[in-house]
Amino acid sequence: MTDQTNPVNWFEIPVTDLERAKHFHETVFGFQLSLNEMGSMKMAWFPMTQDGGGATGTLMKSEGYAPSCAGTLVYFSVPAIEGTLARVDANGGRTLMPKTEIGEYGYIAHFQDCEGNRVGLHSRT
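Given the sequence above, the corresponding structure tokens read:
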């Protein structure tokens, strides 16, 4: 039997200012993040649908976590890249790579969030 599950199920985006990063990502993507703590780790969880497809994750403030523009790149699915990048630029982030066609797979773009992380966007249109 072949496993039909995508290999990624969780991601963590390092932050130095959790409230600022939470506000930025909520404003850019239009959904609410929920604050959680596990010991010394402070997190803002992205929404999750139990047994839904795709991955979810958290903004993470904890020792050993440092925002970076050079490392693993997480892509968020969005309905419209241009509108998302406009919200990024208006809220303390900046576009690093504008909307770029990737053939039959749609379009991608990269931005730097308010913490200094490089984040990807993907859209079919």
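The first strand starts at residue 10 and ends at 14. Try to locate this feature in the token string yourself.
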